[in-house]
Amino acid sequence: MVNTMDEIQALQALSDILDGLPPDAVARVLKWAADKHKIAPTVAPPVHSFIAPTNAGQGDRPLSADLPLYFNDAQPRTSPEKALVVAAWLQAVQGSSDFDSGSVNRELKNLGHQSTNITRDFDDLIARKPKMVVQTRKSGSTKQARKLYRVTHEGLVEVARMRGERQA
Q1: Beta bridge partners of 149
Q2: pLDDT tens digits, 112-144
Q3: Of 26, 12, 147, which is closest to residue 88 (Cα–Cα)?
């Protein structure tokens, strides 16, 4: 059985490496990798189809494409933890490489857990050692400029731990 965390780590490393390349270079690198590993180029299954171990020994189930179930599995307690779980879902399950805090807070509001200060929650996640989230971009020069974020490997591992997934 494939270890979900190994796949997430590989995806994060690959994303970090490919982020700075132009699309034509990304295509060449991926074609080379497919040729090297003797696999036919295919459309990858969505991330939510990967199998994730459960915490109760009840067998395996897919990572939930349904945010309320994903959020409920994690049972976050603090406002920053709630933001981290939703951010990880946006990134790992929905495939958003970067996201803004407003998107996270909209999803939290839909779940009935809207943050009273989402910026403070993200600042908390960035200030942790190791960082759970990093800022990837800022558009504008004011303090209120729109910022984009990405969950770090450590943040994904923390959410997996919260959801009760086995770590290898």
Answers
A1: 99, 135
A2: 999 999 999 999 999 999 999 999 988 877 777
A3: 12
